[in-house]
TrEMBL record:
The lineage of its organism: Bacteria, Pseudomonadati, Pseudomonadota, Betaproteobacteria, Burkholderiales. GO terms for molecular function: zinc ion binding. Keywords: Metal-binding, Zinc, Zinc-finger. Pfam families: zf-dskA_traR. This is TraR/DksA family transcriptional regulator.
């Protein structure tokens, strides 16, 4: 794998990880604040549900980022986790967390488990 591409995706993943960690910390602060100040109970529940949904999305993405950084550490980054073939450079630049080549990703999505 091209060293320049690896450096760029590594940087993108590190930056995304930092952003997601900040986002999650902000959600947690907001949730505990909401739980402390519940005057309007219905509004409060809606707010907490919204924050938890955002939290869920951010944690899912953080999981993908950490998995990609782990593959980088192991030296398997850029190899498809299904077929072992190389993931296209353009795909990695567009989606640094990509774990599958395009063909496997399409099969995976068609199979309906994520
Ligand atoms: Zn594949």
């Amino acid at each position: 794998m091209d060293a320049n591409l690896l450096a760029r995706t590594a940087q993108a993943l590190a930056r995304r990880e930092a952003e997601l960690r900040l986002e999650l910390a902000a959600h947690h602060d907001a949730i505990s604040h909401e739980v402390d100040t519940f005057e309007d109970l219905a509004g409060h529940d809606r707010e907490v549900a919204l924050l938890e949904a955002l939290d869920h999305r951010a944690s899912d993405e953080l999981r993908l980022v950490l998995a990609a950084r782990r593959r980088m550490h192991l030296g398997t980054y850029g190899d498809c986790i299904e077929c072992g073939g190389p993931i296209a450079d353009e795909r990695l630049l567009a989606v640094p967390t990509a774990a599958r080549c395009k063909a496997c990703e399409q099969r995976h999505k068609a199979a309906g488990d994520g």
